[in-house]
Amino acid sequence: DQQVKQNSPSLSVQEGRISILNCDYTNSMFDYFLWYKKYPAEGPTFLISISSIKDKNEDGRFTVFLNKSAKHLSLHIVPSQPGDSAVYFCAASVGNNNDMRFGAGTRLTVKP
Amino acid sequence: DGGITQSPKYLFRKEGQNVTLSCEQNLNHDAMYWYRQDPGQGLRLIYYSQIVNDFQKGDIAEGYSVSREKKESFPLTVTSAQKNPTAFYLCASSIADSARGYGYTFGSGTRLTVV
Fold it and tell me: Residue-wise pLDDT tens for chain B (115 aa)?
């Protein structure tokens, strides 16, 4: 049972434009959400997170939006840069972070 | 430099053999985790441990075993009972009961192939 879903396996955008990566979840108990970025042959690295008490969190070029009623979150990258090309994983947890669930990932390609 | 080290990076195993994947961290993290990644699927939790000498099964623990004798180490054994062991395995660690600011720290992974 996939509790966290990323329905777009890939996304391609032009450098300088906005990248929007989407994530849906089914477990209404999730109260903390994270985005990880993964380069080939490396482990994922933390990018940005949001608590369920918020609907937006911004960190530089990265903004995560949370819509609890729709059980949907999105990651916006603006402006997109070629170095942003990677696989992005959405993750969610209940309570503390000892039981995190991950989506399948979206491969972002930013073209120069 | 603090971090998590997984070894080896690539591992080949013959069918019917057990194999152990190493995971060591020097971050002084309490909790450690093993995930498996398959094409088109998210990271699936195999086992996790919140303290030394204690661990819990994740969603896909069948065919795997772990130990947590030291805080720094959380080895994963893939046994012959695991039906489809070929995958990319990721180890992670975190501060238990943390403020969840930064989630997990991941290792660089081990790619296991059964030949």
Answer: 679 999 999 999 998 899 999 999 999 999 899 999 887 777 898 999 989 999 999 889 999 999 999 999 999 999 988 889 999 999 999 886 554 556 788 999 999 999 8
| Distance, CA of B29 to CA of B103 (rounded, Å) | 12
> Look-up: residue for tokens 């975190």?
B94
Min Cα separation A86/chain B (Å) = 15
Provide the pairing of β-strand A62-67 with B105-106.
Answer: unpaired
Which tokens hold the place of B47?
Answer: 């086992």
Contact B108 A42 (CB under 8 A): yes
pLDDT digits (tens, 9 = 90+) for A40-81: 878 899 999 999 999 999 999 999 999 999 999 999 999 999
Chain B residues whose CB is inside 8 A of the A42 CB are 108-109
* 3-state helix vs strand vs coil in chain B, percent to 5: 0, 50, 50
The residues facing B35 across adjacent strands are B45, B90
Which one of B40, B42, B108 has the shortest CB-CB distance to A102?
Answer: B42
Q: What pLDDT is stored for residue A26 in this prediction?
A: 95
Q: Which residues of A14-37 are buried (b: 16+ CB within 10 A; e: fewer)?
A: eeeeebbbbbbbeeeebebbbbbb
